[in-house]
Specification:
The complex is a heterodimer of chains A (about 1200) and B (about 400).
Chain A lengths: L3 E7 L6 E5 L8 E6 L2 E8 L2 E9 L4 E7 L14 E6 L3 E10 L2 E11 L13 E4 L5 E5 L4 E6 L10 E4 L4 E7 L7 E8 L2 E10 L4 E4 L3 E5 L5 E4 L7 E4 L3 E5 L4 E5 L8 E6 L6 E6 L3 E8 L8 E9 L5 E6 L2 E5 L5 E6 L11 E7 L7 E5 L8 E6 L6 E7 L3 E8 L5 E5 L11 E5 L4 E5 L6 E3 L10 E7 L3 E6 L2 E6 L5 E5 L9 E5 L2 E6 L2 E8 L2 E9 L4 E5 L11 E6 L4 E6 L4 E7 L6 E9 L2 E8 L3 E8 L4 E9 L6 E7 L2 E7 L4 E5 L4 E5 L7 E5 L7 E5 L3 E7 L5 E7 L3 E8 L4 E12 L19 E2 L5 E4 L5 E3 L16 E4 H4 L16 E11 L5 E6 L4 E9 L8 E8 L10 E9 L2 E10 L3 E7 L2 E6 L2 E7 L5 E8 L4 E7 ...
Parallel strand pairs in A: 1-92, 68-70
Antiparallel strand pairs in A: 1-89, 2-3, 3-4, 4-5, 6-7, 7-8, 8-9, 10-11, 11-12, 12-13, 14-15, 15-16, 16-17, 16-18, 19-20, 20-21, 21-22, 23-24, 24-25, 25-26, 27-28, 28-29, 29-30, 31-32, 32-33, 33-62, 34-61, 35-36, 36-37, 37-38, 39-40, 40-41, 41-42, 43-44, 44-45, 45-46, 47-48, 48-49, 49-50, 51-52, ...
Chain B lengths: L15 H8 L4 H6 L22 H9 L3 E7 L8 E6 L5 E6 L3 E6 L4 E7 L7 E4 L5 E6 L4 E6 L3 H4 L2 E6 L3 E4 L5 E6 L2 E6 L5 E5 L13 E2 L5 E4 L2 E4 L5 E4 L10 E2 L5 E4 L2 E4 L5 E4 L6 E5 L5 E6 L12 E6 L5 E6 L3 E7 L5 E7 L11 E7 L21
Chain lengths: ~1200, ~400
């Protein structure tokens, strides 16, 4: 466990920044999105966004800005825009997108590190602004100064100088437009309020030369400056209640009361002339801000219009033609259309065109196996506030079964459209057996057997398809039968000369290729006839053949064939059937199936070999040759390749003992397992009853089903409309317990005061005039409910049954905390009981005002057979530094009712709960307490342990309890059964601020800390001295670059029958992060670790880091003042990049590469490394 | 009409339970929107009760460094060997304590026992500092004006000094730990440990004549501050003389390298302007924690008026200079040190009469951020008085 392989199974999806510009060419419009450490480059097309490239950055992107460099061209052409990035460790870079022959490269134009060795980091975050004329970049990283990077075309190194800023508390800085020297405008706060000041920057003198103008006492809550481009110039100051347009000599202010219920957090200019801006606020409302010039000399009028509500934005950008991209960190990002007219019902000008799923922030998650397939599903608490949701995540592609037909021993299957009103609708399924063929009518949802007069049913069918001129073909051993759709009569029977038996056949609508041993015949389809165009004889028998047209073409220009005997792949040109290319497959196993397929504009030739391997090449149609050979194992048995469409995208289905869907993502082929045991044959089926379905055959029969949206991880969303905090699964009651909180606004604290509690059914939420739901929620307070996304009702208000803590507790009295003030936001916590299959809310238990539920488990206690949901709570008084009162509340869920069985008052927050040897273990602020569950169903304290600042995590194994502390890292306790108490047996003395922990085994412990590092501590039980045994040592450490909220032992893939790569543990630890990344950390052997360390170090030299950040710098553990070398972890994201390298780069990396196996150095060539890396990538 | 400051939206941030819940969703943009979190810190810490901005980190610092649990008390074993100063060993498992009689005693902290003792000086030990390698200890004695660097591997057997520095009232290691800065009256001398040679003498031509000058060196070892005068180490040039505002102490560089803290005054090193005044640090020596974000202030007991004994030490946020805590002690604090893990604090307490050999001194250890252990296991027992104010 000291050696670990760590990899992201799902890349971060939370959007931190976005921008639009002309990056790939001055004629293109591009959208750039920053997702933690990933940069996503899109092309904006009339059809929508087209992903061009996903770029890994060795650092968390904190600022992303685009700028147009000063023109260097003598013709004065406007140059392309460039990307400026700043990372959390103060790396800066300027990137250029270079397009050459369809290949997109990201060039690092300049880079540097602008960290100061001393200086106080801005605790409010970093900011980067770029002079509109691209003369310099200004960064706000440290208190009391700004950093200036002068921009020179020739510079490859970005160097910054510091300029002192007198104001202590700067809120925002921007560059003004239309100034002869770069001029900053700054919003800052002092004891008297917030003020605006401008500074002219002299790059030559490296100083602020003057303060051209200033404006004291703008709105006290002003949050943002928007610089206004020419011709207007000046700036807009956005506050909490007002908006001002300010210029050197004048300013206009309007009251904007509509802003006051939330806070504007981002903006985007719409027009080049600066007349319109989009504003986005915390509640997800989008506004249009207009500057309208009424008279040439007058100041413009300011207008603010509410456009509608979307997801809570982190950033927005205006694309074109009324389309807006809204990037979100707390929920799914969206592409939104701005309409000219208002929707009469929703009063919104916005329609969502596309959503981009985001798992972040993942606050908690659990692994369950609902379908009992031995494959875990991950259920995450994702998103926050109105964007909160549960996500059910499963590896591979899911097939939703619609119908089953019992038909054993099928040998082939094709869907046909015979005289259907719509040619895209299949109404006939051709199913073939060893010596017969059956035709099934699939109209309606009943499947009847029919006869087609022109087709043979006493023979096995080799192939059947629709062809041009409303005809269908059937190929048997005897030949090709051409049948008219309307009459179902045979119009021509073609058979090979000399009555040679047909061995293989394939077609596209206009072309048919038939083989007989070594003979190949090329036929074209005419109305009522098949014409032999050419034929040829090859040296060996043909083993497989394909004549798929490339891309969207109607006709194929080549035939691909795979050969017996010499095991080659050949390309034959049409119509001549001349061989134009030959490539040995490698190995001595015959190819069985072949397909020419186009994914994301790249053409591939896929060849399935008899042992379950798949070899694939990139096919170049100009030169008609194959390059970039790769291989992958898709099963153990001969594989059939079939094409099908999912949406508008073409995919390939590999039928085998491990059915796999092949698709392309980010210009890379992805092989995703389907959740079926075995598929021998498959055909697409689009019938009226089963639209866009697949027919899948195995030994027993045919399954008709639909395929989920294709992606490696299949994700299903259950929107909640409020923030999920914890989830627990209770197998016995087939339910999930989910702790959520909802942000409500106190409307009138005097409503209902003194009234007795209302218990029972859900208070019917009534829609108020403002579109908000209002009504009595928790007895005692008048509440305006927070609404979910798109005005949806939060899940807690949809429950079939409701109960209130205020009526069930004997501990919490009204008034234990001060009642909320009018307009104050209150977080109302609930325990939701949700059905495991439908996820409907069966019961909602609402906790008291100011009572936070901060822990949840489902468990049985002692010999009591009842499963319980147990919640730990804290009464959060905003005036206290920690909770002084909390409760442990025990519920049972029986007969669709949630009943409170017991409660226990504690003097502190119940931060973690854990079942421990039939007892209940609770972390209460700084203590850990063990409770007995008595016959009377009460909690009785058995013992306590005090040696924490504030326990944030707790895990158990056997007699051991591991405690993670807010700041004091972790401690291992042992329960002494005889004495009935805990003994602290080991501790990590480094000051690590933990977020979560996991026990790997008796001696190794995994932890994540608050500055995005993870590490493994070792307790050496075999050490010679007591002192050494008590001290944990960090043996592995790694900078993940993401904040881990939860560890979950488990796995997303089934690994039962497969041995997997040598030296990798059976199961690992999954983790979920704030930015929506799901990762896996898994123990590996020392030999594998040493090998992968060497491989990574070679890879990090070969793979150019964008921004020239060193990989070892990026992954080194850095926390407060400590920086330690990365150790004990292998960066799987780096290792798996090996598969994307070109052949010669692979050779370069693998040159003289060896791996120690059982003390022997074994040479690892490219193929073996590929196999290993591929196996590693299949772990997630 | 000016709008009323609105009700605080993130009002719960002062409570750790709220912060721990919300850090799972991480809200950096929110922080920027508000400048930072506005913890509505009512009570003594913020008499104005207004909207002073506290970042989340500052609130965490306040939570951690606002609580001290007394863990051990160490008393002199022999009469007359009153404690004067202390410092932790490099592995934090031991505590060196200097005495009035010139002895240095090493206490084992796992079960506070006297582990070793040697006589270092013929007078009271006024300062101890441990080299980060853990192998040598620097002690100084003002009454005989000497400082000695001891090799800890040998000292208990040979009592031979590794490096003897005469004419020195107070000595500390440089930030890189390869040099020693020795103070004699107004002069500071920088000595190289390896060669034992004098690298630089910093003798101010015109100085502040503080009563208790203790020179300090910049975190990058480029500047020396002695008696209110700033020297450039490389050139030996006097750069600046700060105004004399207090009669006693020279002050120290802030470990962020940007400021000088001299009594209650905080000076900006770039402009030499007064940045701010922190009244609670008046006449206090300042000690930083290992992450340099918290300052401990201890007033020099020798200079206190007898009727004005200050029996406490101050804890100040080193980023925003807000007060975190004032920790009351039984007697006057004459020395304070913090271990390198920021988990323990040791103070030497005395009655305040340093000349009196019979005075009662103790060394008291605190666990930082811990709260007092409840004697009774009953969670409902009513005994939990925080020792901080």
């Amino acid at each position: 466990p000291g050696y670990n392989y760590i990899v992201s199974a799902h890349k971060p999806t939370a959007v931190y920044a976005c921008a639009t510009g002309q990056l790939t060419s001055t004629n293109d419009l591009n959208l750039v999105i920053a997702r933690n450490n990933v940069l996503e480059l899109h092309l904006v097309t009339p059809e929508g966004l087209k992903l061009l490239k996903e770029i890994s950055i060795y650092g968390k992107i904190t600022c992303l800005e685009l700028f147009t460099p000063r023109s260097v061209s003598p013709l004065g052409d406007k140059p392309k825009d460039l990307i400026f990035l700043l990372t959390d460790r103060h790396n800066v870079m300027i990137l250029e997108c270079l397009c050459n022959d369809d290949q997109l490269d990201i060039i690092t134009r300049a880079h540097g590190n602008v960290a100061d060795t001393n200086g106080k980091e801005c605790e409010s975050g970093m900011q980067a602004v770029i002079d509109p004329e691209a003369r310099c970049i200004v960064l706000r990283l440290y208190e009391g100064l700004v950093k200036v990077i002068p921009l020179e075309e020739s510079n490859t190194e970005l160097l910054a100088f510091n300029l002192r800023v007198d104001e202590l508390q700067v809120c925002d800085i921007q560059f003004l437009h239309g100034c002869s020297s770069p001029t900053l405008i700054k919003l800052h706060q002092d004891g008297n309020g917030r003020h605006i000041r401008t500074h002219t920057l002299s790059l030559r003198e490296k100083e602020f030369s003057k303060v051209p103008w200033k404006l004291d006492n703008v709105e006290a809550e002003a949050v943002m400056i928007i610089p206004v481009p020419e011709p207007l110039c000046g700036a807009i100051v956005v506050g909490q209640e007002t908006i001002s347009y300010i210029k050197p000599d004048s300013h206009v202010t309007i009251a904007a009361g509509i802003l006051s219920t939330s806070t504007v957090i981002c903006y985007a200019p719409v027009d080049r002339d600066g007349s319109r801006y989009l504003l986005g606020d915390l509640s997800g409302r989008l506004f249009m801000l207009l500057l309208e010039k009424t008279a040439p000399d007058a100041d413009p009028d300011i207008k603010l219009e509410l456009l509608g509500e979307v997801c809570t934005p982190e950033c927005i950008t205006y694309l074109d033609n009324g389309v807006i991209y809204v990037g979100s960190r707390l929920g799914d990002s969206r592409l939104v259309r701005l309409n000219k007219t208002q929707d009469p019902v929703t009063k919104s000008f916005l329609t969502t065109m596309q959503t981009f799923p985001n798992l972040g922030p993942i606050a908690h998650m659990t692994v369950v196996d609902l379908e009992r397939q031995g494959q875990g599903q991950l259920i995450t608490c994702s998103g926050a506030f109105k964007e909160g949701s549960l996500r059910i995540i499963r590896n591979g592609v899911g097939i939703q079964e619609l119908a089953c037909i019992e038909l054993p021993k099928i040998r082939g299957m094709w869907g046909l459209s015979i005289a259907a009103s719509d040619a895209s609708i299949h109404n006939t399924l051709v199913v073939t057996f060893h010596s017969s063929t059956r035709f099934l009518k699939v109209g309606g949802d009943i499947v009847d057997e029919i006869r087609i007069p022109g087709f043979l049913n006493k023979k096995m069918t080799f192939y059947a398809a629709n062809v041009n001129f409303h005809q269908v073909i059937q190929v048997t051993r005897c030949g090709v039968r051409l049948v008219k759709e309307d009459t179902c009569k045979l119009v021509q029977h073609w058979c090979p000369p000399d009555d040679r038996p047909v061995s293989l056949a394939t077609s596209n609508p206009g072309q048919v290729v038939v083989t007989s041993g070594p003979y190949v015949y090329y036929l074209t389809v005419a109305d009522g006839a098949l014409n032999l165009v050419s034929q040829c004889q090859l040296e060996h028998e043909v083993a497989c053949v394909d004549v798929s047209p490339l891309g969207g073409a109607d006709e194929a220009s080549v035939v691909g064939v795979g050969m017996w005997t010499d095991i080659t792949t050949r390309i034959l040109a049409l119509p001549s059937l001349n061989e134009v290319y030959k490539e040995p497959l490698g190995g001595d196993i015959i190819p069985r199936s072949m397909l020419l397929a186009t994914f994301e504009d790249v053409h591939y030739l896929l060849v399935a070999v008899g042992d379950g391997q798949l070899v694939y090449y990139v096919y170049n149609p100009k030169q008609r040759h194959l390059t970039d050979r790769k291989r992958v194992v898709v099963g153990m048995l001969p594989t059939q390749l079939r094409r099908f469409n999912s949406g508008s995208v073409s995919n390939v289905f590999a039928c085998s003992d491990r059915p796999t869907v092949i698709y392309s993502s980010n210009h890379k082929l992805v092989f995703s397992k389907v959740n079926l045991k075995e598929v021998t044959h498959m055909c697409p089926l689009n019938s009226e009853a089963y639209p866009n379905s697949l027919a899948l055959a195995n030994g027993e029969g045919v399954t008709i089903g639909t395929i989920d949206e294709i992606q490696k991880l299949h994700i299903r969303t259950v929107p909640l409309g409020e923030t999920p905090r914890y989830i627990a699964y209770q197998e016995e009651t087939e339910t999930f317990g989910v702790v959520t909180f909802r942000v409500d606004v106190c409307e009138d604290p005097n409503i209902n005061t003194g009234s007795t509690a209302v218990v029972g059914s859900t208070p019917a939420p009534a829609r108020g005039p403002s579109g908000a739901v209002s009504g009595a929620n928790v007895p005692g307070y008048g509440i305006q409910y927070g609404l979910g996304l798109d005005g949806a009702t939060p899940a807690s208000l949809t429950a079939h049954n409701t109960s209130y803590a205020l009526t069930t507790t004997s501990i919490i009295k009204t008034g234990i905390v001060p009642p909320p003030e009018r307009g104050q936001e209150i977080e109302t916590y609930n325990l939701l009981i949700m059905a495991q299959n439908t996820f409907e809310v069966i019961h909602c238990h609402a906790f008291c005002p100011h009572e936070y539920v901060i822990s949840l488990i489902s468990t049985k206690l002692r010999d009591d057979p009842v499963p319980y949901y147990i919640c730990g709570t804290a009464i959060v008084n905003p005036e206290e530094s920690e909770a002084k009162v909390g409760r442990i509340v025990i519920f049972s869920f029986t007969d669709s009712k949630l009943v409170q069985v017991a409660e226990k008052e504690m003097k502190g927050a119940i931060t973690v709960l854990q079942e421990f040897q039939g007892k209940l273990l609770a972390a209460v602020n700084n203590t850990v307490r063990l409770f007995e569950w008595t016959q009377e169903k009460e909690l009785q304290l058995e013992c306590s342990h005090f040696n924490n600042i504030y326990a944030v995590a707790m895990k158990k194994k056997g007699d051991f309890v591991l405690i993670g502390d807010l700041m004091r890292s972790m401690a291992l306790l042992q329960y002494k059964t005889l004495e009935g108490n805990f003994e602290e047996i080991a501790r990590d003395y480094e000051p690590n601020w933990l977020t979560c922990i996991e026990i790997l085994d008796d001696e190794f412990f995994l932890a994540a800390e608050h500055l995005n590092n993870i590490f493994v501590c070792h307790k050496d039980s075999g050490a010679s001295t007591e002192e050494e045994r008590q001290q944990m040592v960090d043996v592995a450490r790694y900078h993940l670059g993401d904040f881990v909220n939860v560890f979950c032992p488990g796995s997303l893939v089934m690994r039962g029958e497969e041995a997997g790569p040598l030296g990798v543990a059976q199961s690992g630890v999954l983790f979920g992060t704030v930015s929506g990344c799901i990762g896996l950390s898994i123990s590996i052997s020392g030999d594998l670790y040493n090998f992968l360390t060497e491989l990574s170090s070679r890879l990090s030299k070969v793979i150019k880091s964008v921004g020239k950040i060193n990989h070892s710098f990026y992954r080194s553990f850095h926390s407060d003042k400590r920086v330690k070398k990365m150790q004990g972890f292998i960066d799987g994201d780096l290792v798996e990049n090996f598969m994307d390298l070109s052949k010669d780069k692979m050779e370069e990396v693998c040159s003289k590469l060896t791996m120690n196996v059982n003390g022997q150095a074994v040479e690892m060539n490219v193929n073996e490394v590929m196999k290993l890396v591929e196996e590693l990538s299949r772990l997630h | 009409r000016c709008p009323e400051p609105r009700t605080n939206r993130i009002i719960g941030a002062y409570n750790i339970a709220h912060r721990i819940t919300h850090r799972s969703y991480s809200v950096p943009r929110l922080v920027r929107a508000f400048g930072s979190y506005h913890g509505n810190m009512r009570g003594s810490h913020n008499p104005g009760g207004g909207s002073t901005a506290y970042s989340l980190k500052a609130l965490d610092r306040k939570f951690i460094y606002g609580r001290y649990r007394p863990s051990e008390i160490i008393r002199p074993t022999t009469d007359g060997s009153a404690f004067t100063t202390n410092c932790f060993s490099a592995d934090n498992k031991g505590l060196f304590v200097g005495t009035m009689r010139g002895e240095i005693i090493l206490f084992n902290l796992s079960n506070p026992t006297e582990e070793a003792l040697f006589t270092a000086h013929q007078g009271s030990v006024n300062h101890l500092s441990i080299h980060k390698s853990g192998s040598s200890l620097l002690s100084s004695c003002a009454s005989v004006s000497e400082a000695v660097l001891w090799n800890l591997d040998e000292v208990y057997t040979t009592s031979e000094p590794k490096f003897h520095i005469p004419n020195c009232q107070y000595a500390t290691f440089s930030s890189q730990q390869d040099k020693i800065l020795a103070t004699m009256d107004t002069k500071a001398t920088l000595l190289d440990i390896a060669t034992q040679a004098v690298i630089r003498d910093c003798q101010p031509t015109l100085s502040n004549h503080y009563q208790n000058n203790r020179a300090d060196i910049h975190p990058h070892d480029e500047l020396v501050l002695t008696d209110g005068v700033l020297f450039d180490v490389r050139s030996g040039r006097e750069i600046h003389k700060f105004d004399k505002i207090n009669p006693l102490i020279n002050g120290r560089f802030h470990r962020n390298g940007l400021e000088v803290i001299s009594s209650s005054e905080v000076w900006d090193l770039r402009t030499y302007h007064l940045l701010r005044t922190v009244p609670s640090l008046n006449l206090c020596d300042v000690i930083f924690n290992s992450t340099n974000d918290v300052i401990f202030g201890v007033a020099d007991p020798n200079e206190m008026e007898e009727d004005d004994y200050n029996t406490s030490f101050k804890v100040i946020d080193a980023i925003n200079y807000s007060s975190i805590a004032t920790v009351d002690t039984r007697r006057v604090v004459s020395s304070l040190s913090i271990n390198s893990m920021d988990s323990q604090l040791a103070i030497v307490e005395a009655n305040g009469f340093q000349d009196d050999l019979d005075e009662v001194t103790t060394c008291r250890l605190y666990d930082i951020a811990m709260t007092r252990q409840e004697e009774d296991d009953d969670p409902l027992s009513d005994e939990e008085d925080d020792i901080n104010s």
